[in-house]
Amino acid sequence: MITLPLAIAQTVIWASIFYIFPALLPTWERETDWTKTELTGAFTLSLLVAALTSPLAGRLIDRGLGRELMLGGTLLSIACLLILSQVQTLLQFYAVWLVMGLGMSASLYEPCFANLIRHLTDKAKPTITRITLLAGLAGTVAFPTAHWLTSIMGWQQAVMAFAAGVALTTLPLTAIGLTRLQRQYPVSKPAKTDLKSSPPFTLVFWFLAIAFLIISFVHGMIITHLLPLLAERSVPVASAILIASCIGPMQVFGRLVMVATERHVSTQVTNMACFLGMAIGVSALTVAGANLLLIGLFVVIHGSAYGVISIVRPVLTREVLGSKNFGEISGRIGGLSIFGTAIAPFAGSLIWQFAGYSAMLVLSIILLLVGVGLLQLAIWRGRSMTPPEQERL
């Protein structure tokens, strides 16, 4: 069995090294002398490092080193969490999150899915879908768990508990899942990818990459600032935590809807629907105020749409750009998506500081509509390319 070990592993590590930041952001702001902007700057730095190193991670996967890459990234992430629990200064906080970025680029969805596509090729989508059905609950695990652990033992011990969770689950289960993947679906020989060479950038690549960067940027801003945004609207803390925790189940719901309809709806149409759905969801949040019904509508639509993107992005990338050097191409697009997520927390803080959260939400809607246009251009251009042109990418 390949799917279940990787699904559990991804759930735990996403909760522990990604969602733990927005889950603990209010606690860090309250219990330290560091401002929201200073804190989110560390997360931005971490994600920038992940974005910059994702193409290299993709090349290592193309060379047949995917299992070693992901296990090394997991070990590094465990070490960073343990050190994070002991930091005393803002400089130390930044240093830990900088190194954590290396762990992210080697252990989260992008390397996991690139490994699956390398071994399963066009049969990878069902496995990716099943993994994300469970891993979509990572936020649901992170927010209430972090809140509960922090309330009974403090945030330092809570971070150590998350580190223990990664060591006891993600590390062994990743080893099991990828070992079985390599044995059951062997690749004839590792791709001979020169680490110093890269396939060229093209216009269709940039259309696709910027569109996915936008959707990651918007989601990153909103998910990182969701708790402070709701607090500013006088939504009770318990309700705000419940709302944030429901984003994960809605991602799973969206994936279930996709599974039920994928025979009738193309990957390209699904991608377009995700962008438009997120725009509608953010519009509901923009006008919601403290109205829990409208906030709930945002959670359902936004969460469902974003949940599907993680599945259809690598599939659409392969459809539009071809399969040659897929690990690196996927790493590049994934890296730019991570870059969008990286700059989102800090950008959100700056927008909030100078114009407020309403301006942040309006900007998000505009950007998503721009993303729709870029995605359509990428699809049209991809259709006009011949297979040889795709393979040269």
Structural summary, described in words:
- With 393 residues, this protein is an all-alpha fold.
- It is built from 17 helices and no strands.
- The chain is globular, with a radius of gyration of 20 Å.
- It starts with a helix and ends with a helix.
Chart the SSEs and their pairings:
Elements: H1 3-17, H2 20-31, H3 36-62, H4 66-84, H5 90-107, H6 109-120, H7 124-135, H8 138-153, H9 155-184, H10 203-232, H11 237-245, H12 247-261, H13 267-288, H14 292-321, H15 326-354, H16 357-384, H17 387-391
Helix pairs in contact: 1-7, 1-8, 1-9, 2-3, 2-8, 2-10, 3-5, 3-6, 3-15, 4-5, 4-6, 4-9, 6-7, 6-15, 7-12, 7-14, 8-9, 8-11, 10-11, 10-14, 10-15, 10-16, 12-14, 13-14, 13-16, 14-15
Q: Structural class, judged by helices and strands?
A: mainly alpha
Helix content: over 70%
Label the overall shape. globular
Level-1 CATH class name: Mainly Alpha
What is the number of independent domains?
1
Overall mean pLDDT = 85
Quick one: how many beta strands? 0
How large, in whole angstroms, is the Cα Rg?
A: 20 Å
Supply the CATH architecture.
Answer: Up-down Bundle
The end-to-end distance, rounded to whole angstroms, is 33 Å
